[in-house]
Amino acid sequence: MIERNLMQDLVKWKNVRSRKPLILRGVRQCGKTWLLQEFGKRHFENVAYFNFEREEGLGDIFEKNLEPDRILLELSVVHGKKIQPQTTLIIFDEIQACPRALTALKYFCEEEPEFAIVAAGSLLGITLSTPGTSFPVGKVTFLELNPCGFDEYLRTVDNGLQEYCESLQKPEPLSLAICDKLEQRFREYLVLGGMPAVLSDFIENQDVQQAEAIQQGIIQSYEMDFSKHAPHKDMPKLFLLWKSIPEQLARENAKFIYGEVKTGARAKDLEDALRWQLEAGLIQKVNWLEKPEIPLAAYEDRKSFKVYLSDTGLLRNLAKVPASSVLINNDVFGEFKGRLVENYVLQQLTALGNAPVYYWSSGNLAEVDFVIQQDRDIIPIEVKSGLNVRSRSLKAYREKYRPPYAIRFSLQNLKLDHGLLNIPLYLIGQYRQFIV
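RESULT FIELD:
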């Protein structure tokens, strides 16, 4: 299985003296259950695992009252072993299926803080946004698990190569032999994406077609969620919106247009469906930035935006981009107008804690793919192909706003040129190491 970076955050949570119950959020099948169970195996004497979707009648324990002592006693009976403070990790999986269990976290925090409780939910964002949901505000700690990043994949398949990347401190060119190895792994990741089941299967079997079949199964499970969990009236809109994303990104201007989802549709017709997929973690929304000044949120336009998928491999599969065109072609931007790699960059930036991410444009004259805030600096980011790195847009942005530095992610070698950092796409996880 893929070793997850978030394991370190879970260990930090465990060691906090004033520890609160923890909620782990993330899109379905990104590895939440495995991570929590593995965390429990490594750092606790016992793990008490409860799944509210699969275990019939489990939610009844929370219907009588929300007294922690009684709940712990009954959970111990179901578990078959006494749940001990400090040494037992209690896992509430798919907690969105039992809103009363969510509410109970407040009382565990206030009355039984010595018990270690973690909760996870694939559609938790939808539950929390539902009117009338009673949620323990201020009584829980949140962590977000994203699909595996490229660095997590590289660490698994070639730990020495990942350690080398992490050791880099200066923006100086790498040897071509190392670039070739890293580029090949990057292309693999672009095909596979970050879903743990897909990566693990490919690592074990080296079969792209089999990995693609797993991707397709994940996509189908997401679509089944539309029917199972969304309001019946929204189901047709959810399917139309979901299927339209590759088409929206394929246009020269990838700005999201409601009318492209359904002829004549307006924002009011599809906003609920868009919000549902955002809350489920299936998509990412990148809003337009009027001007890059702090705070960025004050200058965003929420009516002008682009929509990407949470996982690059799933986008490639959904868009039916052949794996061979990514693995073999010299220019990975030749297919799908470069949006696949933009999705990759956005996915990695999000995994590194950059949220929200924006884009900037000036009429029809210039457009910068992404803009992020790093401490007190605002960083423009351009995503380019392997050899073609000309960018009038980034040049126009730099001349207008004079940022201390700008980043270009491409397949060219690592270098710093008068405030412009060219960082190879496979070193995106280390970009902060090169900012001076």
